[in-house]
What does this fold into?
Amino acid sequence: MISPLDVVASVLPVYLLIVAGVVLRWTGILRKEHDDGVMRVVYTIMLPCFMLDKILGSAVLKSGAVVVSALITGFCLLLVGIAIGVVVGRLIGLERGTGMRTFALASGSQNFGFTAAPVVEILWSTGALPLLFVHNIGVELAMWSVGVMIMSGERGIPWRKIINGPVMAVIGGLLLVILGWDSYCIGPARKAMSMIGIGAFPLAIVITGCTIMDLVVAEKPSWKIICGACLVRLVLAPIAFLTAARFLPLATELRQVLVVQAAMPAAMTPIMLARLYGGRPATAVQIVVFTTALSLITLPWIITLGCQWIGLHPVLR
It folds into this structure.
C-alpha cells in the first residue's frame, strides 16, 4: 500500500523546479526575453529527442489496439473534462460573453505535457511514458479541434498547429516500433539523442514556474472562478478519469497514465487559445495558477486513492 506522503516525496522535485522558476523570475535571473529562445530549443529539439528515445524499444507500443485506445482515451477524456467545465460554469452563473467558454476549456483541460511526463516517469519508471506521449496526441487533437471551436465559436480547425516536433517524433517513433526497425537505433547516435533530450522537462518546468510568476502578478483573482475551476479540475474530472481507468478495458500502462492525468492541474494551452481566439485570458490564468498551487495538496491523494481503487503499485523511485 502507498501513502500520500510517499507520493509527495516522489513528485516533490517537479514542484521544486516550478518554485525554482518562480524564484529565478522574481530575482530577475531569468527574464521574460529568455523564455521564447529556451522554449523554442526545448520544443523543437530537446523534447522530440527525449520522446523518440523513450518510444524506441517500447514493447507496449507494438500493440495496435493499445495505441488506438490511448489516442481515443486522450481525445475523449479531454472532452469529458470540458463538458464538466460547461456544467459547473453554468452552475456558478457564467454565460457566453462572461468567460463561460474560457472557463470550460481551461478547467476541463489537464496538464498533459511538461508536468505530467516527469510524474509518470517517477511513479512508473519508463514503462508508461511512451504511452503517455501517444495519449497526448489524442489530447492535442481534441484541444486544437473541439477546443478551438469552443473558444472561437467557429468551425475552422488550425490543423497546422497539430503538426509539430513532438507529434512528429511520436509518429516517427511508432512507425519504427511497428516495423521493428527500432532495434537498429542504437550506438553513439542514440546516446547523443538521449543526452540532448534528458534536460527537456527540467528546463520546461523551470520556465513554467517563471510563467506562473508572471501570471500571478498580472491578474486579480475571482474566487467564483477559482472555486469552480478547482471543483472541476481537482475533484470532478479526477473522478471521471479514475472511473475510466478502473472500468474500461485498457492496458495497465494506460491505466497508470490516466491515474497521473487525473491528478494534474489545468493546462496552459487554453491561455494561448483564449488570446488567439477571443476568449478571456485572465480567466484561464487564474485557473492555471490556483489549480497548480493546490495540486501539490490534491495530487498525492488522488494518485494514492486511485492506485488503491484500481489496484496499481507505483515504483516510487
